[in-house]
Amino acid sequence: MTATPPPARPPRRRLPILRIGLWLLVAAVLALLVLVWAFGRMETANVADAAVYGTPFQLVDQNNKPVSEAVLRGRPTALFFGFTHCPDVCPTTLYEMAGYQKALKAEGKDLGVVFVSVDPERDTPDILRTYVGALSPDITAVTGDPAKVSEMVKGFGIHAAKVPQGDDYTMDHTASVILLDREGRFFGTIAYGEDPKAARAKLERLAERT
To answer: How many helices (DSSP H) and strands (DSSP E) are in the chain?
Structure first.
């Protein structure tokens, strides 16, 4: 008797498996592209958030004229927070900034100096006008409603606090100068007592930045 050969096995269906693999690969690529896009949006958002330093404000200058964050735009700026009753740090810092400002101006370079009082209860526009006027006519002094000043101080990451002193008080505050470029973006700082050559070099780089 002749043995009957077993029935032939149907060919394996490789095509559907291949298609499934391809779809999985496409899905993985799309997921990767979505992640890249998302991270790109996050980076763009972070750059936008970091583009301008500080927060908007509406205060007054030493001439009692309205002043806003616009005073920190259009030119490189050295921004300093202090108060007129300050015995050492503030007058020394402003004197140095006025000197740098004058020296840069002689070289044809522009530098704005903005002094914000952290003691608006005592530092009225009249007092500030006399205070900065004795140093330089090119310094802008800022004061105003204490609550609004406090908002600005916090918005720029500055520490400021009253310290009782007998029947009076003094102010504890950040002593560094904040450097902003002409777009209002953070450029760096100058510490109180920093080497004059190092400080001048920073201001030179700031003035040259476009």
So the answer is: 5, 9
Residues in the chain: 210
- Residue, of 161 and 24, whose pLDDT is higher: 161
Determine contact, residues 149/116, Cβ cutoff 8 Å.
yes
Q: Is 90 exposed, middle or buried (0-12, 13-18, 19+ CB in 10 A)?
A: buried
**Do residues 55 and 72 lie in contact, with contact meaning Cβ atoms separated by under 8 Å?**
no
Q: Which long-range contacts (CB under 8 A, 24 or more apart) does 95-102 make?
A: 95/135, 96/196, 96/199, 97/139, 97/177, 98/135, 98/136, 98/138, 98/139, 100/199, 100/200, 100/203, 101/136, 101/138, 101/139, 102/136
Question: What is the residue type of 72?
Answer: L
Strand partners, 161: 172
Rounded to whole angstroms, the Cα distance separating 6 from 19 reads 31
Total-model pTM:
0.76
pLDDT in tens, 115-168: 999 999 999 999 999 999 999 999 999 999 999 999 999 999 999 999 999 999
CA 125 centroid distance within chain:
26
Which comes out higher in pLDDT, residue 30 or 164?
A: 164
Say how many C-beta atoms besides its own lie within 10 A of residue 116's C-beta.
28
Burial class (CB in 10 A: 0-12, 13-18, 19+), 166: exposed
